[in-house]
Design a protein that fits this description.
alpha/beta, Rossmann fold, 2 domains, 8-stranded mixed beta sheet, 9 helices, 20% strand
Length: 334
């Protein structure tokens, strides 16, 4: 049995050094886990793309950064990649965007925590001819020239498809989401709900709650769910923090193995639990591919080329049976 999962944030980068990482806020003060990563690729300093993410320290964002750095190096651009230490810090992310704009980027790539908070700023930049590319959660449709992301509705539906099969088409399910405002978070839950309702009418969704991706909050939610519904069969969680928290809550309630757990994204702790069968499976994305696609799309738009309005970077189911497959293993991060 796996002991209680505790996942800390790491600010480590890729194994190949392609960047000088400056752990400073845009204003120059120490920023702890939020950081700006300057990619020094011998590119012309005038060719610059600003990237602002939902967060920075989690390995998922480090993987996005890696893909972005690789593409920037190949295309001869300099990038900065930054995000707040917590994915709920709307004001801090807005400040990061404003500071990046002062450096006159040729394009802006952004995963907004709250699309409304940055809408006016990005619209002003678009009016100046600056391309705006959304990645991951993206930005509002009116502000976006292109979006490079997982199809989050399809990802939620894929999780529901496997949940339905695991339950044999009937049972009681609860959902722990991580945000009611971030677009991709909302879509991951909506896709899961819609798929179950369409194809598994005998599966009942008994509760939906939101824990902000916080492990402790999600653990308490999971404990309350199994107490309120003693015959609960499965919990679906919409991100890594929610999944780890739900695992801890189920373990503390003595429900591991009795209530199935389906996750989203990955971490070292999640992978161990998947291998053990304590998490029955999860959805993973392709963050490296997402980072590459965002930068490649930005450069095309800068050069006056057309790009698709939505570029799906893919989603995949993994469980104990395929976690080491050559197509899956590179997409899992710690």
């Amino acid at each position: 049995m796996l002991s209680t999962l505790l996942v800390g944030c790491s600010s480590g980068g890729s194994t190949e050094e392609t960047a000088e990482v400056k752990t400073e806020e845009p204003g120059g003060e120490a920023a702890g886990e939020s950081a700006a990563a300057d990619t020094d690729t011998s590119a012309d300093d005038d060719k610059y793309i600003a990237m602002i993410a939902l967060g920075f320290s989690h390995q998922y964002w480090q993987a996005v950064k890696q893909g972005a750095e690789e593409a920037a190096a190949e295309l001869g651009y300099r990038i900065t990649f930054e995000g707040p230490e917590q994915e709920t810090m709307v004001d801090k992310q807005v400040d990061m965007l404003k500071t990046a704009i002062q450096n006159n980027p040729d394009a802006i790539c952004m995963a907004a925590i709250d699309t409304e908070s940055v809408a006016g700023i990005l619209q002003d930049e678009k009016a100046k001819g600056i391309p705006v590319i959304g990645f991951d959660s993206g930005v509002g449709e009116a502000e976006s020239d292109a979006k490079c992301s997982t199809d989050s509705v399809a990802a939620g539906a894929l999780a529901a498809e496997h949940a339905g099969e695991l339950l044999g088409g009937k049972g009681k399910v609860a959902i722990i989401g991580h945000s009611q405002t971030v677009i991709d978070a909302v879509e991951r839950v909506a896709g899961f709900e819609e798929k179950l309702k369409e194809e598994y009418p005998d599966i009942e969704i008994v509760d939906i709650q939101y824990g902000e991706g916080d492990q402790m909050k999600s653990a308490e939610i999971a404990k309350s769910m199994v107490m309120a519904t003693p015959d609960l069969d499965l919990i679906y969680t919409s991100n890594e923090g929610s999944c780890v928290g739900a695992y801890n809550g189920l373990k503390e309630s003595g429900k591991i193995g009795e209530v199935m757990l389906v996750g989203f994204d990955s971490s070292a702790a999640m992978k161990e639990a998947v291998r053990n069968g304590e998490i029955v499976g999860a959805i993973t994305q392709d963050p490296i591919g997402m980072g590459r696609a965002a930068v490649e799309s930005a450069v095309k738009l800068i050069n006056g080329e057309e790009v698709e309005s939505f570029i799906d970077t893919g989603c995949y189911w993994y469980d104990a049976s395929n976690i080491d497959d050559e197509k899956i293993a590179p997409l899992l991060y710690d």
